[in-house]
């Protein structure tokens, strides 16, 4: 059996032998890509090359990429989800065929990892009538031929998620309509300009009759490769990155037919050990061992799905959450992201605070995070030696963060114990007084059978913010009462500015940050040069035109999918609640709109309430980021 470092190396060598250039992992913080907060897949740093730009190192690339998926935070606790993971990737930039790529991956699995091919299942794109994209019969046939080489007669079948699983005879190669990959998700929700394509996923079956886990909880369950129960583990995904979404919603073929393969390193390791629990591999076990010592509780792998797990904060789930979250925090810190209040930093803070809360549940009394830092450094000392090198600094800063919150947690939990019902007002109070992230309160409430709503929480928060701004705006020339209103106005102008920039410079423009006071608004976006005066005039003209048109501003609550399919702007990798609020500026929220964004804040009712604005300052902040300042014309 290969240890983690051997497996990573075996993979990279395998593809190097097939003339791939092996790239180093990039940082968890994407460079030059404002559309997303973290590197969430191996393809992300390669986006320009998948879109057609020639890569200086050629058309065959491979690497092991550090990834962080913030949207998976609440899924951690089952046998396989983690927020930090490594993705083993290989890419063909218009070079080799599907046949080559699938054949190599199958060979790697069966000859290098020595996986039993009878444990492998493949899923294939079922096609879309709406977008005129056919089912991927070619891929299904390639799989069938590969299995045949191993003397396995593999049936190709339609999605049978409704059937009772009857093993191999039910089908080994399965069509699913959901087999499509892009950073944003399904074809429908992809924004214009985004590349994507049909994919083919490989699953490892831990429940094969006669296997070690055959008598497990999976027996006789209605199950299939894409089922969430934990029996089948996705270990690799070949994306045929061949399409790009257009502004009119249709798809065109990219200049080059690319392949983007990504395999979960932790999961491949678990499959190679025939153990369905990634936390039982050497990538996590050393952390779990320390948690066992600190808590006196024994780690027992439970083969339950996340859904069952979230109802019951059992020790296994708590240990997995702590191990995952502390590891992710340490890896983020090594890439320069420390817990704080904004964007990326706030995710790091949420991870630490959630880990502390679960440690509290496990009965860990002492500070524990600093003790885990060298353990994590050791796990990665070959692949990412910088973690060990920076361990003292990382431990010191994380310990400070832990001390700050550990005390607040005690007090907050006491407060919760006293109230009869934990609602959004109380969640806001816990946030303000004790620094409880909303998600933490929501999780505690859920354990008590109460659902908290993020939108309600955000409304309380923005109301409170506007009030405190009014209180502190004594110097504002319009007087105290108007300061909050003015901030609301600038907030609506921010949406108009975002849209005007996209109209002038293209749909790829994304807001990177903003800041509003009663006297001006500040706006950051990725852009690598000064704006000409003609461009500034054009942008101002667009905004002031919309203000002059007195357009209605409509807030609507809807499902996240619906919002994205209507083209609402959002950060890709951010976890939004299922129900989001969307602000549309335009004569009709369903058509003829000027701007549409996911947003929890408050806005004016009509753009006619706004006064014409000017851009009064424009400067660079850091490399490739432009900052604009706007205020009302005097
Ligand atoms: N980009 C694809 C994924 O993340 C394959 O690398 O699954």
Describe the structure.
The structure is a single chain. Helix content is 38%, strand content 20%. With 634 residues, the protein is an alpha+beta fold. The chain has four domains: 4-272, 2-Layer Sandwich (BirA Bifunctional Protein, domain 2); 284-406, no CATH class; 419-481, no CATH class; 485-632, Threonyl-tRNA Synthetase, Chain A, domain 2 (2-Layer Sandwich), CATH 3.30.980. Strands 1, 2, 3, 4, 5, 6, 7, 8, 9 and 10 form a ten-stranded mixed sheet that branches. A hairpin with a 4-residue loop joins strand 16 (613-620) and strand 17. It is globular and about 80 Å long. It starts with a helix and ends with a strand. Bound molecules: serine.
Question: Could you write a compact summary of the structure shown?
Answer:
The protein is α+β, with helices and mostly antiparallel strands and 634 residues long. Helix content is 38%, strand content 20%.
């Amino acid at each position: 059996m290969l240890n983690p470092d051997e497996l990573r190396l075996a993979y990279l060598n395998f593809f190097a032998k097939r003339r791939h250039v092996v790239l180093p992992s990039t940082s968890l913080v994407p460079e030059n890509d404002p559309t997303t907060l973290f590197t969430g897949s191996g393809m992300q740093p390669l986006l320009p090359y998948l879109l057609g730009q020639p890569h200086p190192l050629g058309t065959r690339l491979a690497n092991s990429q550090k990834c962080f998926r913030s949207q998976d935070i609440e899924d951690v606790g089952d046998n396989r989800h983690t927020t930090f993971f490594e993705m083993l990737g290989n890419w063909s930039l218009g070079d080799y065929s599907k046949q080559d790529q699938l054949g190599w991956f199958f060979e790697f699995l069966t000859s290098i990892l020595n996986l039993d091919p009878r444990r492998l299942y493949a899923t294939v794109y079922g096609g879309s009538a709406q977008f005129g994209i056919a089912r991927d019969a070619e891929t299904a046939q390639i799989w069938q031929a590969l299995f045949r080489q191993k003397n396995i007669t593999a049936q190709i079948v339609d999605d049978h998620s409704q059937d009772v699983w009857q093993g191999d005879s039910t089908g080994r190669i399965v069509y699913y309509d959901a087999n499509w990959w892009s950073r944003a998700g399904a074809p429908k929700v992809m924004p214009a300009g985004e590349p994507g394509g049909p994919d083919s996923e490989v699953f490892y079956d831990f429940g094969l009759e006669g296997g070690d886990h055959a008598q497990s909880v999976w027996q006789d369950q209605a199950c299939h490769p894409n089922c969430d129960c934990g029996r089948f583990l996705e270990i690799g995904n070949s994306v045929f990155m061949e399409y790009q979404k257009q502004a009119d919603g249709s798809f065109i073929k990219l200049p080059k037919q690319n392949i983007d393969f990504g395999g979960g390193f932790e999961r491949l390791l678990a499959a190679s050990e025939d153990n369905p629990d990634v936390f039982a591999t050497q990538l996590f076990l050393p952390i779990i061992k320390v948690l066992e010592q600190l808590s006196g509780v024994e780690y027992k792998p439970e083969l339950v799905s996340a859904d069952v797990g979230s109802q019951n904060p059992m020790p296994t789930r708590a240990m997995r959450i702590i191990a995952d979250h502390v590891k992710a925090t340490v890896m983020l810190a090594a890439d320069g992201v420390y817990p704080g209040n904004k964007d990326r930093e706030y995710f790091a803070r949420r991870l630490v605070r959630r880990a502390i809360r679960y440690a509290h549940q496990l009965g860990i009394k002492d500070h524990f995070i600093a003790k885990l830092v060298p353990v994590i450094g050791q796990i990665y000392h070959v692949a990412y030696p910088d973690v060990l090198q920076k361990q003292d600094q990382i431990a010191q800063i994380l310990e400070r963060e832990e001390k700050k919150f550990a005390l607040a947690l005690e007090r907050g939990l006491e407060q919760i114990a006293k109230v009869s019902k934990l609602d959004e007002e109380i969640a806001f109070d816990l946030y303000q007084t004790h620094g409880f992230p909303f998600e933490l309160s929501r999780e505690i409430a859920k354990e008590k059978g109460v659902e908290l709503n993020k939108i309600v929480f955000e409304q309380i928060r923005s109301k409170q913010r506007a009030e405190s701004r009014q209180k502190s705006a004594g110097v504002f020339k319009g007087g105290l009462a108007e300061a909050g209103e003015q901030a609301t106005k600038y907030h609506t102008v921010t949406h108009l500015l975002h849209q005007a920039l996209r109209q002038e410079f293209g749909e790829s423009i994304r807001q990177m940050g903003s800041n509003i006071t009663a006297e001006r608004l500040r706006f950051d976006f990725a852009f690598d040069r000064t704006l000409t005066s003609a461009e500034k005039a054009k942008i101002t003209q667009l905004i002031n035109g919309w203000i002059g048109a007195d357009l209605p501003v409509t807030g609507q609550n809807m499902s996240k999918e619906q919002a994205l399919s209507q083209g609402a702007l959002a950060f890709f990798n951010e976890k939004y609640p299922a129900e989001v609020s969307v602000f549309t500026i335009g004569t009709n929220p369903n058509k003829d709109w000027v701007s549409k964004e996911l947003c929890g804040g408050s806005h004016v009712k009509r753009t006619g309430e706004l006064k014409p604005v000017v851009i009064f300052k424009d400067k660079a902040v850091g490399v490739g980021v432009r900052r604009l300042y706007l205020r009302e014309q005097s």
